[in-house]
Amino acid sequence: MADLPELIHETLPEVLPPAGRLLSAEAYQRLAEVPPEIEWFANLGSKATRRAYENALQDFRRFTGITQPEEFRTVTRAHVIAWREDLLQRALSGQTIRHRLAALSSLFEYLCDRNAVTHNPVKGVKRPPVESYEGKTPAIGDHQARQLLDAPDAGTLKGKRDRAILATLLYHALRRDELCRLKVKDYKQERRGVAHLKVSGKGGKTRYVPLHPAAGGWVAEYLESSGHGAEEGGALFRPLHHSRPGGIAKSITPDGIYKIVRCYSAALGFEIGAHALRATAATNALDHQADIAKVQEWLGHANIATTRIYDRRKTRPEDSPTFKVAY
Questions:
Q1: Which one of 43, 283, 322, 326 is separated from 205 by 20 to 30 angstroms, measured CA to CA?
Q2: Domain ranges of the chain
């Protein structure tokens, strides 16, 4: 069974003409005949979303035996329920099952918009309950955050870069992908006289985050040592072999960020991933009475319910009625 990228390759014209040239009649006709199922997938902008949705749709196709895009139009709610039961029997987490059903639902919403189907068969299918509204990603303590910032060797280019990366994550609550997309010019933004980071978030949304002075100082120190501070269109954080002027202005990868956080935290005795630094920043801001609506905007969340996952003030042990009991 061909996977989705193979189907796209088979369906779309193999060679599009260079910019400035008209489509050939053959290419035009082939584009006009592209099934909406292929359009939907090809139109997904985020690589992470494409990867997640591809995994979900491939799983559904394997379960149902679908081999051609048009066969999705014969899917009924009964097919979706049977798939959900199969996912449950495989002991996948409730969150994973909800995400897979959401991916399939996204396809059918598009097909409805294109009048390819009359309804979305995923609607009305019961989804596993949310296990907890509290985030599962651990947030580290203030003393651990300080240890992490002090861990890199500030006498080396690698240490300066890593400290600047850790500070940017801890002080601004960025996602890994957002940090990797930062350009040098994004670090040099100014709004109302205050230095800002220009952050390209999920769904192509842009937000401006005030630059914390400590993080800004460490980023400036890194750029001074690396020498690529004048390359405004180049990546802000780069692999070491791309950090010299005139090199390839390629960004460090999200996997590279993960490994940096993992390495330093493991050496300190509390091994965590990069997302834990986002959770730490959000939790810390809320613990210090930041307005939750402002934190939502700061994090780039579309829904404030997602932000509430990081609000652990109601679950702090020191606030428990246990400690109010006196005999």
A1: 283
A2: 4-113, 142-313
